[in-house]
Amino acid sequence: MRLWATTAGLQILNHLTPESVGIRQYETIRRHTSGMNPCLALADVGNAGSVDPADYWRRDVQTLLRHANNIVCWSNDIQSLGVEARQPGQFRNMVVIYAGGGKSLQEGVDRTRARVQSEIDDFVALSEKVVRDAEPRLRGFVEGMKYWIRGYQDWVLKDTQRYAAQFAAVDADDRMYSV
User: Fold this and answer.
1) Which CATH number is 42's domain given?
2) Is residue 168 predicted with pLDDT exceeding 60?
3) Which of 24, 40, 81, 105 lies 20 to 30 Å from 54 when distance is taken between CA atoms?
4) Structural domain includes residue 150
């Protein structure tokens, strides 16, 4: 919660300054302001039971958590761009930061989408290694991460009205990712 509150304050400051933070600083801020960390931390309980702390803190498992968080956050930066760009005040997300570096908005979207796809590819490859010899609770935890990624995409497609207008004419397979 401290990281969330601290990075939320940093995000507010970022919106108030004429120059945006760099992409690496933004990634850290975004990772903690998204709310994904506490949700992902509970993904084990909803699936196969509490994962052992030694498994939870393994480097490869922490890397999977970071990939899952990045996938959802950066996908949201693309999917919410049209809505958030029309909000009052300065708004910055990964797409806008890339575009602000001398690229077009479309190039910012393309670069962000490529980063999301890379995170998905890395998540899939690493998750296959992690679950190969994992005990059931750790396998359930990894499944829970996958459910969160897919659940976010389903929420955008089927539940939230926030992005409905901008996606009304776009086929879901053209914009969604699968894990």
Assistant:
1) 1.10.600.10
2) no
3) 24
4) yes
